[in-house]
Amino acid sequence: MDYQKLYTEKLVTAEKAASVVKSGDWVDYGWAATTPVAIDKALAKRMPELTDVHVRGGILMWMPEIFKIDSPAEHFEWDSWHMGGFERKAATQGFSFYAPIRYSELPRYYRDGVYKNDVAYFQVAPMDEHGFFNFGPSASHMAAVCETSKVVVVEVNENIPRCLGGFEEAVHISKVDMIVEGDNPSMAEMGAGGPATDVDKAVAKLIVNELSDGCCLQLGIGGMPNAVGSLIAESDLKDLGVHTEMYVDAFVDIAKAGKITGARKNIDRGRQTYAFAAGTKKLYDYLDNNPECMSAPIDYTNDIRQISALDNFISINNTVDIDLFGQVNAESAGTKNISGAGGQLDFVLGAYLSKGGKSFICCSSTFTTKTGEVKSRIVPTLAPGSIVTDTRANIHYFVTEYGLVNLKGLPTWQKCEAIISVAHPDFRDELIKEAEKMNIWRRSNKK
Q1: Which residue, 22, 95, 287, 335, is most buried by CB atoms nearer than 10 A?
Q2: Catalytic residue numbers?
Q3: Number of domains in the chain
Q4: Could you tell me which of 258, 202, 193, 255 has the C-alpha nearest to residue 226?
Q5: Tens digits of per-residue pLDDT, 188-202?
Q6: pTM (2 decimals)?
Q7: Residues 6+ apart with CB under 8 A from 411
Q8: Are 188 and 33 in contact (CB under 8 A)?
């Protein structure tokens, strides 16, 4: 097969690619850093003439042009796999909605026909000599999208890193219907949310003290996981492994400090396994053509069976708040959606099933509102409308700057006592009073 000839035959303008969308169509917009750019601009020009278009995507790193048209809700809705800032703003305008999914099952939703898809648009790395377009840092569920979409359109970007993998990290030109050569924008960068605070560092120190040589890491995004990564890079730990949903800058720092070898991993030995990546240029440069890093589909990285097969697995994630029953809300502020569930619960469960594994849910003990009021992240009960990301039966370690407690298997009174013990001291008496009202506090607890 002459791949270059086929490439030329399938090469079209962004306007031509956008023309295939019809009113009522389901359109997949890729994932994170590989959301389309040139095609998005072309579709934005067409969208005012369309109605009831359903667009899917997530981890938006810039505002799509289709979001900027007049009265977007009259023409399409955005269904997000993971709500971010742009999507939250769109939700207030009535055209963005969260799809509460189990992220590890997303490829199956496509393949089993739960989701139909008419058109798929996404950015890819340039075609290689074998006719493959690499998904870059966004393998996630894209192979399943390609297999099940009626029309597959790739937008080539020369700046997208070629992320090597074991499987499902690329699509062959024979499976592609149209090719658009985009404007080659630089990779969108996602920082860690600012420098680590003193609270972040205190939490990180507590977690790092629980780690051992040869453990396998999963880090979430945010200041605390980033602080953990920085401390690990400066520690004496060695032979660490990586098996994670999201690959973040902290892993690059740990790897360049010589701490990651993957030598003790039970599976994918020597490889840093991940489903997608988002970070700074440092991260993208590190991933490009790096055989040490393994881009894989989300139903592999987030499968509890794969996670639990790795000894000494360590999962580190953030939460918005937690109640005295041990219910973890990492997704909303009451009814206001903040983010998605992602794979947090899969990693919580997988880490605990792992031989020697530990999962850590961490947060600052308090936060300050826009009006300057200090509030506790540890609450008697979750606010109405709050989402339970991790149930009270599944939480393992909980960490704030005031301490680290193991909540696994504890009765309600003991779990309540442990949670309050790491709350901010200014809120502990109030929390005890509320616990007494709910009959989950023993009088003997307070000495």
Answers
A1: 287
A2: 245
A3: 2
A4: 193
A5: 998 766 677 899 899
A6: 0.95
A7: none
A8: yes
